Amino acid sequence: MNWVAEWLKPARDMGDAAPVFLKKFELTKPVHKAVLYVTAMGVYEAELNGQRVGDFLMAPGWTSYQKRLQYQKYDVSALLKENNELFITVGKGWYHSHLMDWEISEDYQKIIESPLGLLAQIVITGEDGQEQVIGSDGTWAVSEGPVRFAEIYDGEIYNANIKPDSPEYVEVFDGPWDTLIPQQGEVIRAQERLAAARIFLTPKGETLVDFGQVVTGHVKVEVDAGKGDVVDLSFGEVLDREGNFYNDNYRNAKCQYHYICRDGKQAFEPQMTFYGFRYIRVNCFPGGVKAVTPDSFTAVAVNSDMKRTGCLTCSDPLLNRFFDNVIWGQKGNFLDVPTDCPQRDERLGWTGDAQIFSRTACLNFDVEKFFTKWLADLEADQGEDGGVSTVIPDVRKKHISGGAAWGDASTVCPWQVYLAYGNPEILKNQFESMCRWIHYITIKTEDEYLWTGYPRHFGDWLGLDAPSGSYKGSTRDDFIASAFYAYSTSLIVKAGKVLGKDVAYYEDLYRNIVVTFRKTYPDYRTQTECVLAAYFGLAEDPQSAADQLAGMIRDCGNHFETGFVGTPYLLHVLSDYGYEELAYTLLLRKEYPSWLYQVTRGATTVWEHWDGIMEDGDFWSADMNSFNHYAYGAVKDWVYTVAAGIRTVEEAPGYAKVKIAPVPDSRLEWLKADLDTRHGHISSCWKKSDGYWRYEITTPVEADIIINGRSHLVSAGSYYFYSPIKE
């Protein structure tokens, strides 16, 4: 991109108000094409001749700003006139909002303290072929606009009576140039719009609007008001046990929306922030809260524009609701980065959550571009020693690595994306980063061929066997770390062979890790230790580890005790080693702890804690209790790949060939999975039919269909099979 524009900022400090940059220009020749290129140090919204430019929200998105700043281009040919007015509002966004109360890095502090900046130019090609460039420079002006305050955590204040009609001088400054890159990830757009499901008074007498679904996004408000009337809203995910508004779990995030009306009928919605919510509390409304009607409010879901690719349905309504919850959780947390949650004072790209969920993410949606962009940020923020932060983009104090299972997002995510889409480019882009992560472990460990002595692991986070007062399960940190050391090394071997790399060093390293692991950890003390030993192929006898796991689960009354690390692989280990029935028992369990317990408590997304709302109606905690936390939704990949049986073949990634080995269970009448791949549509369905299982399978490619242990090699087409139902 050839930039002739200059970086602009207001000549004076405008406080919390979002500056509006203005440019008027005339055209004297017919226009063939006009393209606006724009980015900002902050978030921006452009308007040309009274029309919003594009539908990208929260542009230019969130990247590792020190090294990568995206710019966007828009075709504005149809918006041009003879006399033109361009307005671009710049808000704080992720660039300038004070993210978290934790200690942030010096680099990110410098970003926060830098000015709100704009870089823009319109490249106009006339019908005569001549090119004209109108770039941001000292001839532009700036004015305070109606956005009086806007931050990621705290929300937005908007005064509709303020117009950007008092132009002031701009100042040209030396903004970032070397870091500019074209748009890489999926754009952020408004998606579903949800009407108010009900409006009601709480026992405290507060007026609440319920949209019936936890969403990430904002609220559109329509009102007939007088000048100076106020709409003031607060946001929350759940009600307390008495049915009152509750958002203490948002911690220090104010999540406000305060709108000062102009005179007359008007519709409005926030421009420069987003919220996580199901309920809004109407604190103030023109005509009083009694004037609030369902037509006044619409919830607007906002997320990265990912194409839906996978769908699961079955005969169990609770399980269907859970499938939907996983979808809503992914959408709500895939807003340019894979966040842990979209509501409280966090909303960060936690690497552990992304790693855990990556395979399921690739089944639900087409996330190739999404992960390509985020993994590039991971590589950009990776330490010189190879360490990977707990969150990407890295806003925390430097040199704090995420430790095992978190830093392993650098290896697991690229591999899962490659398997899902068959494009080796993701491995090519990330291979050096993958190797650097293993180097980091190698230099940080206290024992050769293990990862020991590291003080910063999250362990089996939120494991139910955690000691009192701890968030970490009882699984040994060094056990988890060494297991992932082996797993990530094995993925480097696989990735290297795809790319034609010499991976002899990593093959030797992997063999030595496995041998040392088996000598060091001959016994397994927790469910998660059994899971990792079996799933990662580290146990001398994986069947014995799976047997022990099944025994532990039964001894607990048929429930699991695994946390973030063990849960994604739990059902896989059970079904891989002959415990399919037990795996289904856990999946279909309704009592705490279980996936369906949340559904019985009214969940519409996946919770951070198995008992975020406890059986007595109280909350687990106000400190760390998100009700839109997608990680435990990772179990959905077991339903796709085992229950429905749709599996990738490593030798033919991207579903160029496919293995379909469904595993039905008599507690369900039927189950169906649909998956759109790069090679076409795959469908796998099983249903009860006169004492038999009837299988209906469609494949667009060669497939190995395994029914009741018998293999059927088939070409593209639709097929029907039967097997007896075993009660």
Q: pLDDT below 50 for ≥5 consecutive residues: which ranges?
A: none
Total of DSSP H or I helical runs spanning 4+ residues: 15
CATH topology of the largest domain: Glycosyltransferase
Q: Which oligomerization state do the chains in this entry correspond to?
A: single chain
Bulk shape: globular
The residue-averaged pLDDT reads 96
Number of domains: 4
CA gyration radius, whole angstroms: 27 Å
List how many beta strands DSSP finds: 35
Give me some keywords for this one.
727 residues; alpha+beta; Jelly Rolls; Glycosyltransferase; 4 domains; ten-stranded mixed sheet; 35 strands; 26% helix
Structural features, described:
With 727 residues, the protein is of the alpha+beta class. Helix 6 (409-421) runs antiparallel to helix 7 and helix 10 (527-535) crosses helix 12. The longest helix has 23 residues, at 477-499.
Short description:
The protein is built from 15 helices and 35 strands. By secondary structure, the chain is α+β, with helices and mostly antiparallel strands.
Would you spell out the secondary-structure blueprint of this structure?
Layout: E1 7-10, E2 19-26, E3 31-41, E4 43-48, E5 51-52, E6 69-75, E7 83-91, H1 93-96, H2 106-113, E8 117-126, E9 131-135, E10 141-144, E11 147-151, E12 155-159, E13 168-173, E14 180-182, E15 188-195, E16 198-201, E17 207-225, E18 230-236, E19 238-239, E20 245-246, E21 256-260, E22 264-268, E23 275-284, E24 297-304, E25 310-314, H3 317-333, E26 334-335, E27 337-338, H4 351-364, H5 368-381, H6 409-421, H7 425-444, H8 477-499, H9 504-520, H10 527-535, H11 542-555, H12 567-576, H13 580-588, H14 595-600, H15 636-643, E28 646-648, E29 658-660, E30 670-677, E31 680-689, E32 692-699, E33 703-707, E34 710-714, E35 717-724
Helix pairs in contact: 4-6, 5-6, 5-7, 6-7, 7-8, 8-9, 10-11, 10-12, 12-13
